[in-house]
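As promised in the previous annual report, we have extended the structural survey to additional targets. Below is the entry for 4'-phosphopantetheinyl transferase.
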Amino acid sequence: MGNSPGGQSAAPHVAAGLGSILPSGVVAAELFAYPDGLTAHPAEEHLIANSVEKRRRDFIGARHCAREALRELGEAPVAIGKGERGMPLFPRGIVGSLTHCDGYRAAALAHSLRFRSVGIDAEPHGPLPDGVLDSVSLAAEREWLTTTSSDLHLDRLLFCAKEATYKAWFPLTLRWLGFEDAHITFEIDSATSDSGAGTFHAELLIPGTTKDGGAPLVSFDGRWRIADGLIMTAIAHG
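The corresponding structure token record, generated without further manual editing, is:
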């Protein structure tokens, strides 16, 4: 793979864990460890000049992954700006999404001729902090949680799916989508104490008018995976 802007090799894994829940045509790149010497792209440094170190590393790592994904798509590994509400600004003709959590940074990109939007999210596989669930879920979702027997932290999975839904929604609408504005339902393919996989369906509860006049958004379908202490969710909307 390529070099970091600082000149040292910092190639992430391409199409590893995240790639397993994305369809053909969407390229994923991941960093499970932060490479020594990885620095910001010179054209992005001003966006994080005053940020704390953790924020800098998350920003730099995720965008480094995005440039690796651009290379895999046959595109130039250019700087990636920041738009409204922090939306990453990918090159013309490219759609994608970034995510990061402790020990993990990733990007998933595709050509816009094949997909309208992409949304990904990653979270540590642990319970949500006390008091958070009620503010990020609908009553029907909480009922599902209480009636589903699993060793997995499904409350955090729900949050992760909501985040991926927002990331798939916002670039197409440029409008806020609250936690209460999408109803998520899940199918579980398999699960043990520390792994599982399946699909999810996000029913949108507000009008999905898009900024480009395309077909209104009604719902998204995605996949999820839990393994090695990490929850991943992904939507590739065609």
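The chain has four helices and eleven strands. The first helix runs from residue 53 to 72. These points will be discussed at the next consortium meeting with the crystallography subgroup.
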